[in-house]
Each structure stands twice: as structure tokens, then as C-alpha cells.
Write a structure and sequence with these properties.
Helix content: 40-55%
Mean pLDDT: 91
Shape: globular
Number of domains: 2
CATH topology of the largest domain: Aspartate Aminotransferase, domain 2
Strand content: 5-15%
CATH architecture of the largest domain: 3-Layer(aba) Sandwich
Oligomer: single chain
Distance between the termini: 55 Å
CATH superfamily of the largest domain: Type I PLP-dependent aspartate aminotransferase-like (Major domain)
Largest sheet: 7 strands, mixed
CATH class of the largest domain: Alpha Beta
Number of strands: 12
Structural class: alpha/beta
Strand order of the largest sheet: 2-8-7-6-5-3-4
Number of helices: 15
Amino acid sequence: MTNLLSGEEQKQILNRGFSRRSLGKFASILTAGAALPFYNESAMAQLSMVKDIPADAVKINANENPLGPCPEAADAIHSIVQKGGRYLYDETFNFAGTLAGIEGVKPNYVIPYAGSSDPLHRAVLAYTSPTKSFVVADPGYEAGGRAAEYVGAKVVKVPLTKSFAHDVRAMAEADPNAGVIYVCNPNNPTGTLTSRADIEWILANKPKGSVLLLDEAYLHFSDATPCSDMVAADKELIILRTFSKLFGMAGLRAGAAIGRPDLLAKMQMYSAGALPVTGMVGAKVSLQQKSLVASRKKAMRAIRADTFDFLAKNNIEFIPSDSNCFMLNAKRSAHEFIGAMAKEKVYVGRSWPSMPTYSRITVGTADEMAKFQAAAKKVLA
């Protein structure tokens, strides 16, 4: 399988301290698509892939948006399907140009991907190695850490602060040889924010030679200021965006990495293939709907506020969130809570090893959250 890598690519990988045995792992990631090789069966079960969910069940376990794509994007996707026999690269370029214009960066500062997990993994391949670690918050989104472990890079986990923000000072000091410092803002799974001042601080104080990987997958649900202006100022960070969350396109796969061209170039060595034209045209049209973000954020927040009121009135502990998910403390094994809720046909999200009694809950529709409330009240009685 290593023949999928050019001689120059193999040379660059070996020069970064990887063994020849690692070449096959790099190649397997490049050809895996969504079925990434470091997600074995047990890992996938721990994540949000639940089989045989009843059709009438409430599924609030995967941070999906039940609204789906906006009507304008859905129409554009439907219209493009008949042309799906061609690659239609121009749609990818048009999406990149549209996003670049909105973010205030040059077009070559945006590289489209099928979602944001793909560029997350590519950044790990490009910037970590046996001598360059991956620094991440705990609890935090696990995909980058799993990719790092798979290729033999060290993963350094840094606990969140008492306010559930990233402890940027501890992260900056965690490893002087860090390759990637990963900040998800708002954080997954806690839905909590790290201040712009802290992001500016870690960008200015991170170890020399490292890159700040800022995952803004849930940014649009919050009032946080995008950090794309830092990219425009040529800082050493790469921003990840996805259309899976607020824009409701999880199954359609669209996203992007935003960064300085020289930083993105290191990731592009590990990229291959055309992107789904349905995702590209859907993302472009979604960006063109000027009121979409505000209206969807307002609607989600109203449902979230009602849910938080219910939890508070019933003395159910939770972590207040600025995202479309939050952590609920079941005061017992989260696995037991998850199983008990499933028996009520309400499927809630997983737990993290550092928070074993907490389950991550996605904010669904008003009807879904009403069913969640009824089930939670019964299960936690």
C-alpha cells in the first residue's frame, strides 16, 4: 500500500522521525475516507454509531441538526444531482471563494474538505510525529488524538479549567516539542467557550514550531468572534469549519480548513480525490443566506433554555453550554443512564473517561426535547 505515497512523500515522512512501518499507516488513512482505520469496532461503538434505532425514537446523541439543510441549499443540492456524473470542480472553487470572502481572507487561504474531521486528521499527519506531540483538552474531541496515536505521536491531555475552558497556559507548557495544540471552541463535549483573549495568548506563547489548530465546528451556535482575522494576519494557526452542525449537512459532508497557504500546503500532501458536489453546492448556498445563522441560533437557544430550565427545576446537574450540546451529570455510570434512556426510546450521547458520570446531550427539536425531559425525569427519579 505504500506505493500510494510518492518517493518524495515517503522521504518527508521518514525525515520527520517516522519508521518505514508507519508508511503503511499513512497510506491507509489516505485511502480510508470516512472509515478511518484507527476507529475499530469498539471505538465506533463508544462514539455515536448506534444500530437499529427505532424509527420513532429520539436521536440526540451525535450533535446532529435535525433541521437538515436550509430550503435554498436543499433546492440547489437537488438541482445538481442530475449533473453528478461529472466532478464539477468549479463548485468546489466557488464554495472556497464564497467562504474566503465572508471570512476576509484570500481564496488560497481556504481549502475545502468533506467535513472538518478530514482536515483535522490531515493536520495531525502533517504536524505531529514521534517527536512532535498532539496537545488536547480533557475532555475534548477525541478524533485528533486517535489519529496521533495511530501514527505513533504522543498525545498530551490537559484538563479543562474549573469553568470548563481550555487551560491555555497549561497547554502551552505541556510539551516544549508540541507539533499541534488543538482547541475546539466551543468545546466538544462540554459546549463551553474559551475566550478570544486566551486564544490570542496561546497563539503568542505556544512552543516554537507548533501550529494552533482551532476547531470552530460549533462557532455559529455561540456569540464567540471568529478568529479568521488572525489567519488574515498570517498567524500560525489553522481554523477548521464544518457545515454538519448549524447548517444541517452532517450527511452531505462539507467543510474547510482556513490558514496561511504554506501551512495548508503541508496538509495537502495527505489529501486526495474530488469532493462531493452536493456538499459543495449546499455549503455555498447556505453561506449566501444572510439570516440563516441568526435564525437557527435563536431557535436552538430557545429550546436549549427551556431544557436548562427543566433540568434546574428538577435538580439535575448539567454544564451550561454555548453550543448545541451539553453535559448532564447522571450521578451514576453514564453507561447505565444511556442504556436506561434507550429503553425509553431516547438515545443520548456518550461519556468521556475523565467525566464518567456525564452524558453528552444534543439539543434537538422542541418535540424531541419534550420527550427527553419526560424520559430523563423517569430515569433519574
